[in-house]
Amino acid sequence: MVEDPSEIDRVRALAAAITGQLGDAAEWLVVLGSGLGGALDAASVGASADFRALPHLPAPSIEGHGGHLSCAQVGGVPMWFASGRVHAYEGHAPQAVVRLVRACALCGVKRLFLTNAAGGLTPDLKPGTLLCIEDHINLSGLNPFEGPHEPAFGPRFPDASQVYDRRLTQALFDALDGAPRARGVYASLRGPSYETPAEVRMLAHLGASAVGMSTALEALAAHAMGLQVAGMSCITNFGAGLSAQTLDHAEVIAVGAATRGHFRDRVLPCLSRLATRAPG
């Protein structure tokens, strides 16, 4: 009887396959959330691999998450882009949710930029605002470090006092000058149902600025492995109770697509400027 591989074996096999498909690791891994996949239109895309062609990597089942990993040039700097991600609410364990991030870290990626679609929790955070994430509140009830300890993934009890790199966050905020922008705290819930008005009030009272269903687990896993992490939420809707409009995923996709211009013209060039490796 063949035993199931351990999580570290899965991640190592995935890392080897990624290197085989994309070549040497780029400095940045950029995870494109709902509706932002089109941001790659401005980049010179090279090698690409479908999630389904990579071992132990679950494929997204949600609209707006394409499910492929690409190497692209931005301002002469190579970057890896994950178009889409998987979520715990799709039926995946937290280890599967962060498997791609961990594999890319083993490949040699040094920096992670996470994006997502999120609901604004205050009236001033209007749809179309780009929120630079300064911290998060993980209310999903999940943690990527559950189960047996694997030293390759970081300490048994990882520090989380500075998950999001301050310098990177400030640089991204500055790059958005002239665009709808904000800074704040992202609350991560498990989903997939949207929040009730009472939950929106609770989250705002806790100090959160935006709420979504991703990002926190990936950020924790990457930070524990020594990556510098930055994150950005595209505010796609007001939280329940802040407007009369009901929430649906089509609105999330539409507003995400409408922000691609700022992301393409301001955010990606900023990541290129922040790269420490010489272009080419």
Task: Give a structural overview.
- This protein is of the alpha/beta class and 280 residues long.
- It has one domain: Nucleoside phosphorylase domain (Rossmann fold), CATH 3.40.50.1580.
- The chain contains eight helices and nine strands.
- Strands 5-8-7-6-9 form a five-stranded mixed beta barrel, surrounded by four helices.
- The model has no long low-confidence stretch (mean pLDDT 89).
Topology:
Blueprint: H1 7-22, E1 28-32, E2 44-50, E3 68-74, E4 77-83, H2 94-97, H3 99-107, E5 111-120, E6 130-138, H4 166-175, E7 181-188, H5 197-205, E8 210-212, H6 216-224, E9 228-238, H7 249-258, H8 260-274
Parallel strand pairs: 1-4, 1-5, 5-9, 6-7, 7-8
Antiparallel strand pairs: 2-3, 3-4, 5-8, 6-9
Helix pairs in contact: 1-3, 4-8
Write a concise keyword list for the protein shown above.
alpha/beta; Rossmann fold; 8 helices; 24% strand
How can the largest sheet be summarized?
5 strands, mixed, barrel
**Which segments are poorly predicted (pLDDT under 50) over 5 or more consecutive residues?**
none
**Secondary-structure element order, N to C:** HEEEEHHEEHEHEHEHH
Number of strands: 9
Offer a quick outline of the entry:
It contains eight helices and nine strands. It is of the alpha/beta class and 280 residues long. The radius of gyration is 18 Å and the shape is globular.
